[in-house]
Amino acid sequence: MLWLLNIIIKVTRLNGKCFHINALYIDTVESLPDTTITFTNGKKIVVLEKEEELVEAIIQFYRTVNILGFRKDVEESS
User: Helix/strand/coil (H, E, C) string of the chain?
Assistant: First the structure.
């Protein structure tokens, strides 16, 4: 299960060990078929979470901190 706390996302390695990653440093998320996260520095990790779960957690993070105008709770004025 994923959860968000400030700028970190909790993920699980294939061996079952949980850890946290900084959402700001995620470059790509791919299913190869295991979910592989590539960071902006080129480092890669493989996690149990599905690609769709990670993308949703990243979008939720962006909404929380209002990056790129992704906030849902603010109505656009006409």
Answer: CCCEECCEEEEEECCCCEEEEEHHHEEEEEECCCEEEEECCCCEEEECCCHHHHHHHHHHHHHHHCHHHCCCCCCCCC
In terms of Cβ atoms closer than 10 Å to its own Cβ (0-12, 13-18, 19+), residue 66 is: exposed
- Rounded CA separation 50/33 (Å): 10
> Is pLDDT of 2 > 70?
no
pLDDT tens per residue across span 32-63: 899 999 999 999 999 999 999 999 988 888 77
Rounded to an integer, what distance in angstroms lies between the CA atom of residue 74 and that of residue 24?
Answer: 22
